[in-house]
Write a structure and sequence with these properties.
Elements (H helix, E strand, L loop, with lengths): L1 H10 L1 H23 L6 H20 L13 H5 L2 H11 L5 H32 L5 H12 L3 H9 L3 H29 L4 H11 L2 H11 L4 H34 L1
Helix pairs in contact: 2-3, 6-7, 6-10, 6-12, 7-8, 7-9, 7-12, 8-9, 8-12, 9-11, 10-11, 10-12, 11-12
Length: about 260
């Protein structure tokens, strides 16, 4: 019986992955409602549970792919891959009304530039405070402070070490979790209640997962607008990180040297 069940699970690994994620989301949203009264969004709890499971399985198996190292959960590796991630990001754009998109105008563009450069500068500053001086490492860590996607893309392009790339991913994850938790709590204070504000917010924060989860907890109708500029933010960061950002850091490091 167990052998037949194992064979069935391995054959339909992706279906099992979707079912498992569905259960985790159900438990997370129930925990959010019962224990935090919605103050901590269910998505944040789900991400925490996923990271915790990855750490536990990693220590247990000595693997490098988190829960996907377990044969029964190999489908998680496919489900969590770039294909489904990018599909989910692009799909959010279909909820945008063109009128509201045009209305954001220059505000959305400015928010992208300001958000990206401020996050990058903050990441570089923290790295400098911890004694990092290598321009490649500084650029990678600064990019990680933008998002956990921009960090590894920049690091891979510049030839950063795996340790530095891992740190950049960790920095981006911390930012994403902080954004998704803080957004519903601060939304009323910062006037986050309309499409234009959501687009500016997405451009300033940039982290797609954090912005989407935070806006979902605030007002689901705002999600496509924040996701739109947050997606542009990620693309712009991947473009500027290994080029303009790196040359800027290299110039400043050389000038200080």
């Amino acid at each position: 019986m167990s052998a037949a069940l194992l064979e069935l699970v391995e054959k339909y690994a992706l279906v099992v992955a979707f079912a498992l994620v569905g259960v985790v989301m159900l438990v997370s949203y129930q925990a959010s409602r019962l224990f935090t009264r919605g103050r901590v969004h269910g998505s944040a709890i789900a991400i925490f549970l996923g990271l915790l499971a990855a750490v536990v399985v990693g220590f247990t198996t000595g693997g490098r792919k988190g829960v996907a190292d377990l044969p029964l959960l190999a489908g998680i590796g496919t489900m969590g891959g770039a294909m489904f991630r990018d599909l989910a990001i692009v799909a959010t754009a279909y909820g945008v009304r063109i009128e509201d998109l045009r209305a954001s105008g220059v505000h959305g563009v400015v928010s992208l530039v300001v958000g990206l450069f401020v996050a990058f500068a903050a990441g570089v500053a923290v790295a400098l405070a911890f004694g990092v001086r290598d321009p490649v490492a500084l650029t990678t860590l600064g990019a990680g402070a933008a998002t956990y996607i921009v960090g590894p893309v920049t690091g891979a392009a510049l030839g950063a070490s795996s340790e530095i790339i891992a740190l950049s991913i960790a920095a981006g994850l911390v930012k994403a979790i902080l954004v998704m938790i803080a957004t519903p709590a601060l939304a009323r204070t910062i006037g986050l209640d309309n499409p234009r504000a959501a687009m500016i917010f997405g451009g300033v924060m940039g982290t797609n997962s954090g912005v989407i989860a935070g806006l979902a907890a605030t007002d689901p109708k705002l999600v496509p607008y924040g996701a739109m500029t947050a997606t542009f933010y990620t693309g712009l960061g991947c473009l500027l990180g290994p080029s303009v950002m790196f040359f800027l850091v290299q110039f400043l490091a050389g000038g200080n040297g």
